[in-house]
Input
Amino acid sequence: MEEVKPDRYRILVTGEILPEGLALLQAEPDFQVDVRTGLPRAELLKIIPAYHALVTRSETAIDRELLDAAENLKVVARGGVGLDNVDIDYASQKGVAVMNTPGANTIAAVEHTIGILLALCRRIPWAHHSVRSGEWKRKKFLGTQLQGKTLGIIGLGRIGSRVATRLQAFEMQVIAYDPYVSVDKAEQIGVPLVEFDELLQRSDVLTIHAPLTEETFHMISASEIARMKDRALLVNAARGPIVDPEALYEALTSGKLAGAAMDVFEEEPPKGCKLLQLDNVVATPHIGANTVEAQINVAVQLAEQVIAALKRDEFENSVNMPIASREEYQRLRPFLELAEKIGKLQVQTVPGRVAEVSVEYYGEISKYVKPLTVAVLKGILAPILREKVNYINAPYIADERHIRVRQTRSFEPVDYTNLMRVTVTTDQAEQTVAGTLLSRTIPRIVEIDGFGLDVEPSGRFLIVRNYDRPGVIGRVGTILGNAGVNIAEWRLGRLRRDEEALAIVKVDDPVPKAVIEEIERLDDVVRVLPFEL
Ligand code: NAD
Output
């Protein structure tokens, strides 16, 4: 049922918001904006039922109690990135969108990165102190230039891509390593994508702009530094734990690296961090985002998002999926999980950079095209998103990354009452995976590239593609057995006329890369792809 919009929206502002943002909210003729900072909690609980939007900072706990009281609330908006004070899951169940403002500080972080790099190259902090102390030692401060040098970027996202274009203007050769960005986007800004090793070997300056994930934790440690150019510079204005501080200290004292510029630390504030004692380290206290303009941007973006959400049902930068009612959420939940798992399976098993995601829906599931496509995208993008994995912002991120998204639906059921089929196309391959919910609750993967299957999507698996000749299964089993990998299930895909077969093997233990390569060397095996759900 279409929701009836109120004539007048009431907005409660409990946190500081700069006048530039407040003015935008107040300018909406059908908005009534009440600024009530420092409101006692009991008072807040009393007045909240009247409001449609709540603009806050970290001081207000948006918990179950508050969300239960907030009968008319549609949006909680919070400046900055942190959302620790909000019970996001419960907000989703109550149909309340929770928004933050990532990206509002992109330019601030970009300019700071370049600032600390130049400070390092020209020894500006040390020269400054020297002049202030009454010295005039021009020879002591011999710098290095950026022109003609190679800049290697790890993570070509919002910040990395803008650091790239700005340092291209310094006539640097810019290259990047980013396994998830589309070739399209990199080409558009004229930055060749290279493998990680090549990046390490070629860069005179290495700058990090990737999120902190399992994959990027200590991504720069002793063995990576060893592969870097002698006397290279390292810049980290992303997240501290991406660099192993011990290894960096060792490299900076041995002379392997000439210097480092850092805005972020493994522990913040850094306690007893030896790097801070070094004369070839420029350090700032995580101030990349701190500019007047970034703060104004946060306020303006926050106001624009609240307006778009209330008036146009647009939820950019919402970190959750507001669903109309709790009942609907319960109904949708298993479908969402299935969709996300299909996305996860795809991103782990299709080689290359994702260029297109196409989803077909059949049967009753077709009612939920929008949230389910988002859930597929979330599964695909999860390893590359920032710390907070978002539901609603997944389409925006896909768009920013030039990933085409297509969806079609048909209410006619096919072999199953409900079926969703997801095709992911990359610059190297294409794969289709279909799933269903048995009895509307039990998720099953029922097809991969036309091979019929019946797999419960939970656990560790291998996709084994092979020619259907006698003995293949046995030989694969023997190799796994010899490696101490227990096989829990073996599901064979329906054969096609070309005699290619596909099996999904559920394993109890992780399968080492060397074992996968050994299986792939078997005569009749085409490819082995591990994935985990
Ligand atoms: P973004 O999500 O727009 O871009 C991150 C990029 O990293 C993406 O293109 C992604 O594909 C890539 N990536 C993910 N995993 C990777 C991997 N394993 N190897 C290489 N690349 C990988 O994020 P953003 O807004 O550009 O922010 C980048 C970083 O800067 C984040 O860590 C963020 O927390 C940090 N940041 C710091 C400050 C500060 O105050 N110093 C301010 C803003 C952002």
Observations:
- DSSP finds 17 helices and 21 strands in the chain.
- The pocket of nicotinamide-adenine-dinucleotide is lined by residues 105-106, 109, 154-160, 177-181, 209-213, 215-216, 237-239, 263-264, 286, 288-289, 384, 386 (CB under 6 Å).
